[in-house]
């Protein structure tokens, strides 16, 4: 559906430009946008590599293990239906740690691996489990201590104070995380109160 929306926007934009005789503006905007995207990507590489290296050092130094023990009760509260020693827990922790540092690109692979592990615990492969929904909500509205990616983008565009957004970002993401957790708890309670759906006898249809 998203691909259809983007394609429609592109076609409509190009169509209006053609009708108004401004195809040169569209061509210039396309090339300028591509050049800006490459420039921004190169600016982000150094920051992402730095923080991913710091996370690797922290992992080798045992800090990630200590952080895991510290967050274990909290993660157990958020994911009560996932065994404590399951592989998904490690990927969930890595995903949350990357999001805390504002490394959305680094958090995505860990989130996908966590989803794959959670899928192994899923009795209905065509329906997301509550744990999957919780992970998706936390990954989308994760609290961010250091908005690394945004700071890198602001630095790339020569912001006078690229780190001034740390306080407001922390407050906004904290509120978003609390709202996501509250919504997740509410839907979990609602799911538990819902009566089980009776199975249809074999050979019969609605």
TrEMBL record:
Kindly list the residue ranges recorded as spanning the membrane: 33-54, 128-153, 165-183
Q: Which InterPro entries has this protein been placed in?
A: Gate_dom
Superkingdom: Bacteria
Domain named Nucleoside transporter/FeoB GTPase Gate: residues:
42-150
Print the keywords alphabetically.
Membrane, Transmembrane, Transmembrane helix
Protein name (database record): Nucleoside recognition domain-containing protein
The source organism is Paenibacillus medicaginis
Source organism phylogeny: Bacteria, Bacillati, Bacillota, Bacilli, Bacillales
């Amino acid at each position: 559906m998203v691909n259809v929306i983007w394609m429609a926007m592109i076609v409509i934009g190009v169509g209006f430009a053609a009708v108004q005789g401004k195809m040169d503006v569209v061509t210039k905007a396309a090339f300028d946008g591509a050049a800006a995207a490459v420039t921004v990507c190169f600016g982000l590489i150094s920051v992402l590599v730095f923080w991913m290296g710091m996370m690797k050092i922290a992992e080798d130094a045992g800090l990630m293990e200590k952080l895991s023990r510290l967050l274990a009760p909290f993660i157990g509260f958020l994911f009560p239906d996932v065994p404590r020693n399951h592989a998904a827990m490690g990927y969930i922790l890595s995903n949350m740690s990357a999001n805390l540092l504002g490394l959305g690109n680094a958090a995505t692979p860990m989130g996908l691996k966590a989803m794959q592990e959670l899928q192994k615990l899923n009795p209905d492969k065509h329906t997301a489990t509550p744990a999957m929904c919780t992970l998706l909500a936390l990954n989308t509205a994760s609290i961010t201590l250091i908005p690394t990616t945004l700071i890198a983008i602001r630095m790339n565009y020569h912001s006078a104070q690229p780190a001034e957004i740390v306080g407001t970002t922390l407050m906004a993401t904290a509120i978003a995380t609390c709202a996501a957790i509250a919504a997740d708890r509410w839907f979990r309670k609602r799911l538990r109160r819902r009566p089980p759906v009776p199975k249809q006898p074999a050979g019969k249809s609605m």
